[in-house]
TrEMBL record:
<feature type="transmembrane region" description="Helical">
    <location>
        <begin position="381"/>
        <end position="406"/>
    </location>
</feature>
<keyword id="KW-0545">Nucleotide biosynthesis</keyword>
<keyword id="KW-0812">Transmembrane</keyword>
<keyword id="KW-1133">Transmembrane helix</keyword>
<keyword id="KW-0418">Kinase</keyword>
<dbReference type="GO" id="GO:0006235">
    <property type="term" value="P:dTTP biosynthetic process"/>
</dbReference>
<feature type="region of interest" description="Disordered">
    <location>
        <begin position="688"/>
        <end position="716"/>
    </location>
</feature>
<keyword id="KW-1003">Cell membrane</keyword>
<dbReference type="InterPro" id="IPR027417">
    <property type="entry name" value="P-loop_NTPase"/>
</dbReference>
<feature type="transmembrane region" description="Helical">
    <location>
        <begin position="323"/>
        <end position="342"/>
    </location>
</feature>
<comment type="similarity">
    <text>Belongs to the thymidylate kinase family.</text>
</comment>
<dbReference type="InterPro" id="IPR036259">
    <property type="entry name" value="MFS_trans_sf"/>
</dbReference>
<keyword id="KW-0472">Membrane</keyword>
<feature type="transmembrane region" description="Helical">
    <location>
        <begin position="162"/>
        <end position="182"/>
    </location>
</feature>
<dbReference type="InterPro" id="IPR039430">
    <property type="entry name" value="Thymidylate_kin-like_dom"/>
</dbReference>
<feature type="transmembrane region" description="Helical">
    <location>
        <begin position="121"/>
        <end position="141"/>
    </location>
</feature>
<dbReference type="InterPro" id="IPR018094">
    <property type="entry name" value="Thymidylate_kinase"/>
</dbReference>
Length: 716
């Protein structure tokens, strides 16, 4: 288990070690700026195009078309562009691409300034966007291939997380916020009469253009290392990207885990895309203006940043497969909730959650793809995911904004109820439902902890004590445990019950804790020495009882239950909860977790609690005249805490407990117990064996020393 402190320290050290690598640091900074520009540009081109035409349908179509144009090149040219990018020097490929993108971005507002008509402006914006996207497809593989050459393998994941947070978390938020601020301040400064060159959308496009120029310059003159490590360029040209791309798809199609992952990631992004695509009309349906749209847009990406950056710290050791499915359900349920939002603040919260879910799904998915896919195919699968998420996101934005544009002006009024349903909300509703379905089925397909309750698992992981499945076994027998304080009469009753059942010809295994096995005998000698002998500390004592229990269950109890025997044990888990927990005042939940781990989740079918006043019990023990052990020698208060712990446990689960007054005659007690057990044995198949299990999940993170990290700086 990792404490929060450890997680933070390793995370921070990893971050520093990645940023210490100069070429990567430069690339990251410049890519961040470029990504900020791109998001500004994406928002700007869409709004820009929509501003050029009148009417909600036309606006929706214009908004959608510009975005849709972004997905066409990837669909058609994706694989071929990869081949191109692999053939030439990566640094110069990046530089030339960025110079071209600079020119194209700048041309969009330029055409408007030159006084072209609305239609021409939209037309050119569309063509330019198409060209930009095509160039981007050449640029991405060059960049992706360059990054691994800049940093050591062990730091790749951290680098990816950093890049993800920057591209999908930080820069989009900044972009949305700055365009909202820009919009407000330009309008305030000009008193509403905005000269066309200073329209926020146009300013954003100019910035986008300049950020690309800056990237080109930095890559050309500041990160010469990108040209290195490409010595085997000739060898790579032999394997076409088209073939690589195809192989990637075939692998995805044939591997269920990967298929589920990829579909899940796409699904989450589709949900996010629909929210973005409908956001404008959704904002309008909330009675809020354009600023609300930017806020919603920003909220999604704040959520993404929270999910990617903070998700792992929150869920800690939760199974990544489960986290993945849960995240998709979270994102989809939030989309669903958006459909019912009646106020902007509700919508903002929903949007943050949509982003958080999508971000966590993306991170969990990426981690799983990295960890569970063989090295030889990993690159291609990542490529498919990357191009795929782009396509899905853009497609979802375009399609939903188009649909909403068409239906946005229509409102369905439900007779006198005063409820109006817009197409926006219906779309969100449908998307949410579909997403929840996808998330649950992805969860089911790849669940690695079947049988562990989902919410308990999540809660346990968040608190740092993750659960794992019960050890699989089928009990055909009956597990009866006697619990109670000292001298309650447990040994007496165990013997009586065994005699009764044995007399009926049943196989009975009587046993006890601690000390039923040879190993247990040695443990018993350690924990139950005479008072004054070397006694173990409370935690050591708890571990010793758990150790005895683990061995006892594995070698005696479980095999007997599998055979179909009735197992009657003098003490079990509850004794640890009562003595080590309540008695020694160790945290009861921790002791419980320890015992559950030891037993693999095995719970008794029936616990007979012989309740006795400590004074009475202890006097019976004393009457036996044997030497007292150090537990018996504990204070009366100790034994009282133990007694009430037993009673509390019984009260919490009354069906599984038979609480009897141990001061009654032994015969009476024996008869009551025998009746209850015989009832259960009449129809053994009707016995519902309880069995959830808990186990720790240790994830060891190897840490490099600072000295090792420094040497990773490439000497130049
Ligand atoms: N119901 C009872 N009433 C009175 N004395 C009892 C009863 N059951 C057991 N005893 C006596 O109390 C003492 C402790 O009983 P034992 O079965 O060894 O308890 P435990 O195993 O719970 O310590 C024994 O001397 C036993 O004969
Ligand atoms: C099984 C178990 C026993 N104990 C203690 C309670 C008892 O004092 C002691 C041994 O129990 P037991 O053999 O039942 O002694 P007695 O018959 O005298 O009651 O071990 C724990 O503290 N934790 C445990 O988990």
């Amino acid at each position: 288990m990792s404490s929060t402190g450890q997680v933070d320290r390793t995370g921070y050290a990893a971050l520093r070690s990645v940023l210490r690598i100069r070429p990567f640091r430069r690339l990251w900074i410049v890519l961040g700026a470029a990504s900020y520009g791109d998001w500004l540009g994406l928002l700007a081109t869409s709004i820009f195009a929509a501003d050029q035409v009148e009417g909600s349908t036309a606006k929706g179509a214009a908004f959608g078309t510009v975005i849709a144009v972004r997905l066409l090149p990837a669909l058609v040219l994706g694989p071929l562009a990869g081949v191109f990018a692999d053939r030439f020097d990566r640094r110069w490929t990046m530089v030339i691409c960025d110079v071209l993108r600079f020119l194209l971005f700048a041309s969009i507002p330029l055409v408007a300034i030159l006084g072209a008509s609305g239609g021409v402006v939209v037309g050119w914006a569309t063509v330019a966007t198409f060209l930009i996207e095509t160039i981007t497809l050449l640029w991405i593989p060059a960049k992706e291939a360059a990054v691994p050459n800049l940093i050591p393998r062990a730091r790749l994941e951290m680098a990816n997380q950093l890049t993800l947070i920057t591209t999908y978390g930080i820069t989009p938020v900044l972009a949305a916020l700055s365009i909202a601020v820009l919009d407000a301040s330009v309008r305030a400064a000009t008193g509403g009469v905005v000269p066309s060159w200073s329209e926020p959308a146009q300013l954003a496009l100019w910035f986008n253009a300049l950020s690309r120029l800056a990237t080109a310059l930095v890559v050309a003159f500041g990160i010469k290392e990108i040209s290195d490590g490409q010595a085997d360029r000739d060898a790579r040209t032999e394997q076409s990207m088209l073939r690589q791309f195809k192989e990637g798809w075939r692998f995805i199609g044939h591997t269920p885990l990967v298929r589920g992952l990829v579909l899940g990631i796409f699904g989450a992004f589709a949900g996010g895309g629909i929210v973005i695509g409908t956001a404008r009309f959704f904002a309008a349906s909330l009675g809020a203006g354009d600023a609300a749209f930017y806020l919603l847009f920003g909220a999604i990406f704040v959520g993404l940043a929270i999910g990617i950056g903070g998700g792992p710290m929150i869920v800690r050791d939760l199974s990544r497969r489960r986290w993945f499915g849960m995240s998709i359900v979270l994102a989809s349920a939030s989309v669903l909730a958006l459909a019912f939002a009646i106020h902007l603040s509700m919508a903002m919260l929903g949007a943050v959650l949509v982003g958080a879910g999508a971000g966590m799904a993306f991170l969990a998915g990426t981690t799983l793809l990295g960890g569970e896919i063989a090295d030889e195919v990993r690159g291609r699968v990542f490529a498919v995911v990357q191009i795929g998420t782009r396509l899905v996101l853009i497609f979802a934005i375009a399609l939903s904004s188009l649909l909403v544009g068409v239906g946005g002006s229509r409102e369905l009024r439900i007779a006198d109820l005063g409820i109006s349903i817009s197409s926006t909300r219906l779309l969100l509703l449908a998307a949410g439902l579909a997403g929840i379905f996808a998330g649950i089925s992805a969860f089911g397909q790849m669940d690695d902890k079947k049988g562990v309750p989902v919410l308990a698992d999540l809660w346990g992981s968040m608190r740092g004590r993750p659960l794992t499945p019960a050890e699989p076994f089928v009990s055909t027998g009956l597990f009866v445990v006697f619990e109670g304080g000292e001298g309650a009469g447990k040994s007496t009753q165990v013997t009586r019950l065994a005699e009764t059942l044995g007399g009926q010809g049943r196989e009975v295994v009587t046993t006890r804790e601690p000390g039923a096995t040879p190993v247990g005998q040695r443990i018993r000698a350690l924990v139950l020495g005479a008072p004054g002998s070397d006694t173990p500390s409370p935690r050591a004592e708890a571990l010793l009882y758990a150790a005895d229990r683990a061995h006892h269950v594995a070698t005696v109890v479980r095999p007997a239950l599998v055979r179909g025997a009735v197992v009657v044990s003098d003490r079990y888990v509850d004794s640890s909860l009562a003595y080590q927990g309540a008695g020694r005042t160790l945290p009861v939940d921790e002791v419980s977790w320890l015992s559950s781990w030891a037993t693999g989740g095995l719970k008794p079918d029936l616990v007979v609690l012989l309740d006795v006043e400590p004074r009475v019990g202890l006097s019976r023990v004393a009457a036996r005249g044997e030497e007292t052990d150090h537990v018996e020698a504990e204070s009366l208060a100790f034994h009282e805490r133990v007694r009430y712990a037993f009673l509390d446990l019984a009260a919490a689960d009354p069906k599984r407990y038979l609480v009897l007054d141990a001061s009654r005659p032994a015969d009476e007690i024996a008869a009551t117990v025998a009746r209850r057990v015989e009832e259960m044995l009449v129809d053994p198949s009707a016995i519902v064996h309880p069995a959830p299990a808990k186990q720790p999940d240790t994830s060891v993170q190897p840490e490099l020393s600072d000295a090792e990290l420094v040497t990773m700086e490439q000497p130049r």
